Amino acid sequence: MSYWHTDETHDPARTSWVASAQDHGDFPIQNLPYGLFSPADEAPRAGVAIGDAILDLAACVGAGLIDCAPLLEGQLNALMALPVAERIALRRRISALLSDPAHRPAVEPLLHRAADCTLHLPARIGDYSDFYVGIHHANNIGRQFRPDNPLLPNYKYVPIGYHGRASSIRPSGDPLVRPRGQRKPPDAEVPLVGPTARLDYELELGVWIGAGNDLGSPIPIGEAADHVAGFCLLNDWSARDFQAWEYQPLGPFLAKNFHSTISPWVVTPEAMAPFRIAQPARPDGDPAPLPYLSDADDQAYGALALTLEVYLSTQAMRDAELSPMRLSQGPASNMYWTVSQIVTHHASNGCNLMPGDLLGSGTISAPTRDGYGSLMEISSGGREPISLPSGETRCFLEDGDEVTLRATASAPGNVSIGFGECRATVVPAR
Amino acid sequence: MSYWHTDETHDPARTSWVASAQDHGDFPIQNLPYGLFSPADEAPRAGVAIGDAILDLAACVGAGLIDCAPLLEGQLNALMALPVAERIALRRRISALLSDPAHRPAVEPLLHRAADCTLHLPARIGDYSDFYVGIHHANNIGRQFRPDNPLLPNYKYVPIGYHGRASSIRPSGDPLVRPRGQRKPPDAEVPLVGPTARLDYELELGVWIGAGNDLGSPIPIGEAADHVAGFCLLNDWSARDFQAWEYQPLGPFLAKNFHSTISPWVVTPEAMAPFRIAQPARPDGDPAPLPYLSDADDQAYGALALTLEVYLSTQAMRDAELSPMRLSQGPASNMYWTVSQIVTHHASNGCNLMPGDLLGSGTISAPTRDGYGSLMEISSGGREPISLPSGETRCFLEDGDEVTLRATASAPGNVSIGFGECRATVVPAR
């Protein structure tokens, strides 16, 4: 039951001697997410975010402050693969180093100002799989592509997923080149080729796989939580016009694989322990999950008390010094399947998951428009533009638009933690 | 125009001092495919197949016989990424070492009996994408899943593809565990969970990516051939019952990602140069490829004179010492799109391909049943069992069945070359 483990690292009274960590919305000492960073021009190395600073964990190992060899590798895959007990021990050690003033003299020289550092993808992502567990999104999109048949008969039995592209995943901040491709307007005789006219974002929860499984050996639902190394935000950029034309019969391909943006900090299951909540009950009449996807603990603790937000800033808004506009806000618990259920389903046929694999939840939308997780939904497929404070309107994204995803976990009696930004700006097609 | 380059290495009069290379159906000196092999218990290293032997290329570099640092890495990704001119130079050097008797004293000690070696995956496969360019297969399967609508309107404009699973690709010889999963018979109220009852193979051509492209920068059709490092056979094992239930709306997932088998030798574009043929003309009335997929040279030389075969051997057949039965034979030119067209299409939205990525053609079927590339087609969806020499019948694969794919390239005035085996045996579900 590792995923409900709390200890002194979660104590709301615990503070860090790093001043900026106090009341830091994202990275108080109760969070301690891992990342791969470069100070100035130096080589990438493991770090942990604390307030506005990053602690160089590789340097901590070098200085004898931490005993954890995987922190010396140039990727976090080996760190992610650690057994849960070792991950918990590492977290406790880092929390002690950053809270106990006695450690300050040794540790402080190993801190870097985050603003001076570059954040990289935390792991070598072997495979990236994307799911479709946001049931309100599935309904909204399904209605646009298949008006008579929005939710297919398999949806409430199968955590629907598909494979995505690992090579084009990029960390927050990397600009997104508007993709070219084929689209076929209903009145066109042949498809047109050119930059997408329906560029969209998708608000998703990302899940980092920790310990893997051998090919041919499924992961029982009761063990699935131990195979999760952390969480991030994921923007699964989508070209809706390409998607509508290409997606049958084998699913989305070029409509999705041109770029995906993630928040670069790995928020651990340990950090999320206080924010575990019960999976919302299925509506009356829905089938119970099949036995291989059923687990009482997972139902009791398998959802996350996590608020997801999307912000938009256009070039004109930035020129006028207007703040980004929030497009939506909603809870991550609008997932029809839990993280453990998607992990177990993915491996149920013996498919081997590997440390550093990334799973996406699929777009998470709330039932109402102020919580829709994509412009395709917010603009009703491009028919209802939204108005921006600059006087502009948008159905889909224009060049220069900047989209930022945010996530905040909160629970009574606990210090809230955040995921950091998942942000990118659209640049013109080449 | 590298893909039509021939030189002395293709000379049909050239022979090797390795006796078994003469009249070797797969690996005469005109082939020289690369692989990653281990002699006995030793570490994997780069090698080249010659007759019944493997030449240790890493040892050749160590001995000063070859000057090519990428051969010293434990994977062939860097070798695959070499510019075409360097690949051609390397091939000429290896061909000289293995043909000129003057080199025999230095080279012969670096040969290993292939039968004593283990073959590995040749590269770290970053991403695996599977296409659907076998038009007769698309028609046959489409008719079973969508009787009224076998070939969708996008098929003749879009080289349809989707992302597959890289982690579960295995070299020839590794057994395949029958997967478990959800299937829903038409008369069942809820899905059943258990081992697949419709296990199938798929006969595909695999394409290894060599030099990659930067994210956001497409690959023009005229340059696509230079991004291909080689070819292999690919068996995209499929659970047809899982596929029918799960594949809408996002495509195949657990029906395909439990295991894929490849032939471990990388047959280079250089080796295939004499076997380039014109892409078959599209049937009257079909649209011309869109401009970004059109290239006169590709139409003239973009197809391969390659015969593909599938053999089946059951446990009962092996017990009775019966030879494997050939299930099908057909030409690879039944691809509606060329290799260059699928490479260019894949990167047309800026998606970055990487050295060591693997593309699958999708199942290649001939127009008639003796050339169908899957049991789903041969057995008409399980309604017309085939009879085996053991007196058994098959609609789909049973435990103990062994499937072997083979490929042979032939052209008048040239020595034929083969791809080696792509073979695996089905073992019971765990």
Automatic annotation (TrEMBL), chains A, B:
Annotated EC: 3.7.1.2
Pfam families to which the protein is assigned, alphabetical: FAA_hydrolase, FAA_hydrolase_N
Pathway listed: Amino-acid degradation; L-phenylalanine degradation; acetoacetate and fumarate from L-phenylalanine: step 6/6
Binding positions for Ca(2+) per the UniProt entry: 130, 202, 204, 236
GO molecular function (one): metal ion binding
Keyword annotations from UniProtKB, A to Z: Calcium, Hydrolase, Magnesium, Metal-binding, Phenylalanine catabolism, Tyrosine catabolism
Residues annotated as binding Mg(2+): 236, 256, 260
Active site: 137 (proton acceptor)
Domain Fumarylacetoacetase-like C-terminal: 136-427
Region listing for Disordered, in residue ranges: 170-191
Residue positions binding substrate: 132, 146, 243, 247, 363
Name of protein: fumarylacetoacetase
